[in-house]
Amino acid sequence: MKNTVQSIASWGNYPRVNAEVFEPANQAEIQSLVLENERIIARGNGKSYGDAALAPKLISTLKLNQIISFDAEEGVMECEAGVMLSDLLKIMVPAGWFFQVTPGIKQITVGGAIASDVHGKNHPGAGCFSDHLVSFELMTASGEVKTCSRSENTALFWQTCGGMGWTGVVLSAKFKLLKIQSSYMLQKTVRAANLEAIFSAFETHRNWPYAAAWVDCTHSDWRGAVFFADHVKEAGSPLVFEEAPKRNVPFFAPSWLLNPLSIKAHNYFYNRKNKDGERQVTLDKYFYPLDALQNWNRFYGKRGLVQYQFCVPENNAQKGIQQVLEIIRKSGETPFLTVLKRHGERAPEALHSFPIRGYSLALDFPRTRGIFDLVKGLDPLVWDLGGKIYLTKDACSAPQMGRVNPASFGEPKFSSLLKERIGQ
Ligand SMILES: Cc1cc2nc3c(=O)[nH]c(=O)nc-3n(C[C@H](O)[C@H](O)[C@H](O)COP(=O)(O)OP(=O)(O)OC[C@H]3O[C@@H](n4cnc5c(N)ncnc54)[C@H](O)[C@@H]3O)c2cc1C
Question: Is the pLDDT of residue 305 over 70?
C-alpha cells in the first residue's frame, strides 16, 4: 500500500502538520491499518477547514472510488466512501436525479459528507445528509465491518453521522436522491439594505426551498443579498450537469492582499453586481459558485484562513448575530466572505449534526494574529445564546463549543487533532 510523509493541511491551510498518509485500495488494507495503529483517522478530500481531518497518521479514502449501484428508477445511489460528489453528479443529473442535500462544494467525498453530516441551503425542508442515508458500512476499531442503518446498529449509525470519523472508517454508503425535471434552478435575488431586511427576506420567502444570504460586513448596517431558489419544474433543455468554466489560483497570494480596504472594495463591486429579480441558472452556478475558482483559499496567502461558523436558536437569532457582528467590527478583523443560512428542526437522534433550528453564520477570516483573540471573545457569546460552532470548520474555538463530548462515544483509536483539542 502506498504511504508518504507529507506536510498537510485542510482547506483553511491552518493548521499544517507532518503526517504519514496511507492510501489503502481495499477493505483488507484498511483493516490492517486500523488494527496496527493506535491513533489514526480517516481523511476524505481535506475540504474541512481546520484540524478535523489531521492527525500524525491518516487513512486517505480517495482510492475507494467505485460506484456500487445506481437505481435510476428509484433514485438510490450506493458507492464507496471516497467517491466525490462531483463524480456522482455527472451520472445522476443526466438520469434526472440530484442530491437531497448538498454542501456548497462538490469536491468532497461521501465519507466526509457523512462524518460531518453536511447540510445545504435547504436545511429547513430537507435536513442534513443523514436524513437521506439508507445505510453505510463502517470499519470499527476491532477491524469488524458493521452495517449501520435506522434498523441495524442504530446507535452507531447516529454516532457516526456528524461524528467526525471518531467511530471508525466509513467504507461505503447507500443514500436516496431527489427527482429533478431540469438541470436549471430558478433563482430569486433579493437585495437587502441592512441586517434586519436580510432576516425579513428569509422570513417572507419561506416557500422557497433553498436560501442563503451574503452579508457585507464592511457596510455600516450589514447590507446583503439573499439568494432563493427552486428546481425548474418543466422539462426543457436536456438534463446534463454543466460545470462553469474553471479558473485556478496558481500560487499563494501575498498575505497583505486581503486587508480591510481590499475586502471593502471587493464587497462594493459584488454588491453592485447583484440585481434584484428572478433568472434561471445552472445547478452548478447556484449550488457550487465557489468551485469555479479552484484553490481560491490561496488568496489568503500562506498564513491561511479561519472559518468561524456558528448556529444560534431562532428566538435569539437576529439580535445575537448582530451582537456577534458588532464584536467583529470592534475587533478590527474583517471577514472576506460571510454567509447566513436558516435552519429547521433536526432529527432528534441526530445529536452530532451541526444545525439547530435557527440561523447559522459562516465567516471566513484571513488568519491574522488577532483572530484567536477574536474567537475567544465570540465563543462565550455564542454559548450564552444557546449556540454552537461547526466542528468541521473549526481550528481554534474553545473545546465545548461543538456541544459534543468525544469521551461519550467513538473509539480512542480514531483520533484527530480536533478530537485531542476537544478532549478524549
Ligand atoms: C468552499 C466550501 C464550502 C462548504 N460548504 C459547506 C456547506 O454548505 N455545508 C456543510 O455542511 N459543509 C460545507 N463545507 C464543509 C465540507 O462539506 C465538510 O468539511 C466535508 O466533511 C468535507 O469532506 P471531505 O471529503 O473533504 O472530508 P475531510 O475534510 O477529509 O474530512 C472531514 C471529516 O470527515 C471525516 N471523514 C472523512 N472521510 C471519512 C470516512 N470515510 N469515514 C469516517 N470519517 C471520515 C474526517 O475524519 C474528518 O473528521 C464546505 C467546505 C468548503 C471548502
Answer: yes
